[in-house]
Amino acid sequence: MASPGDHKASEISLNHVEIPIHANGVNPKSISQNVEDTIKIDYSQRAQWLRAAVLGANDGLISVASLMMGVGAVNENITAMLLVGFAGLIAGASSMSIGEFVSVYTQYDIEKSQIKRDKAKNNCRVVDEAQREKLPKPFQAALASALAFSVGAVVPLLAAAFIRNHKIMLAVVVAVSSVALLVFGSIGAVLGKTCVTKSCARVLTGGWIAMTLTFGLTKIFGFAGL
C-alpha cells in the first residue's frame, strides 16, 4: 500500500513534467515561417488597381506620344502637335475612366449577386465580411485609370512643350517616352513581384511599335495627299 508521501511525490513530479516542443513534432522554425506566411502580402489583391494603373499610364503615354508623332509626320507646326496631344489627354482619360467604371461595375454586380445567392443557400446566414471586402470597387478603378492615363499622357507633352524645333521635338518625344515606358514597366513589375526585365521589354517594345506604326502610316497618307 502506497503511503501519502508517495502520492504527494507523484503529484509533484507530474506537475513539473516538461514536454519539449520537438516531442510533439513541432519545429520552432515552422512556427516562425507560419507567422511570416500569415502576414505576407497577397499580391493577387493588388491585381485590380495595379492593372488599371499600369494600363492607364502606358495607354496615356503611348497614345499621346503616337498622336504627336503622327501629326509631326505630316505637319511641322509645333502648336498643332501640342494641341493634338492635349486633346488626346482629355479624350483618353475620359474614355479610360468611363470604360473602366462600366467594366468593373459589371463585375461588381455579378459578384454581389453571387454573394446573395450564397447567403440564400446558407439559410440567410451572415455572409463573411471578407467576401464583401473583396468586391471590386468601380469608382476606385475609374479614378485610378483616369489619373494614371493623365500621368502618362503628360510626359510627352511636358517634354515637347519648350522645344521649338520640329525634328528635335520628335526625337525628344521618342526618347522621353522610351524612358518613361521603362519606368512604368519597372514600377508595375516591382509592385506585382514579377520579372522587371520582361515587363520593361514588353512595355517598351509595344510603345515603339505603336509610335512607329502611327508615324509611318500617317507619313504614307501624307505622301498620298489624303
Keywords:
226 residues; mainly alpha; 8 helices; 79% helix; 0% strand; elongated; transmembrane
Describe what is shown at a glance:
With about 230 residues, this protein is mostly helical. The protein has 8 helices and no strands.
3D structure, described in words:
- It is a single chain.
- The chain is mainly α.
- Helices cover about 80% and strands about 0% of the residues.
- The protein has one domain (about 45-225).
- The chain has eight helices and no strands.
- The termini are far apart.
- It catalyses: Fe(2+)(in) = Fe(2+)(out).
- It holds the Pfam family VIT1.
Write the layout of secondary structure elements.
Elements: H1 4-15, H2 28-38, H3 47-74, H4 78-121, H5 129-133, H6 138-160, H7 166-192, H8 196-223
Helix pairs in contact: 3-4, 3-6, 3-7, 3-8, 4-6, 6-7, 7-8
Tell me the number of strands.
0
Radius of gyration: 30 Å
Helix/strand structural class: mainly alpha
Order of helices and strands: HHHHHHHH
Unreliable runs? 7-15, 17-23, 34-39
Can you count the helices? 8
- Tell the overall outline: elongated
Main pleated sheet: none
In helices, the fraction of residues equals: over 70%
Mean pLDDT: 78
The total number of structural domains is 1
First CA to last CA: what distance?
116 Å
Strand fraction band? under 5%
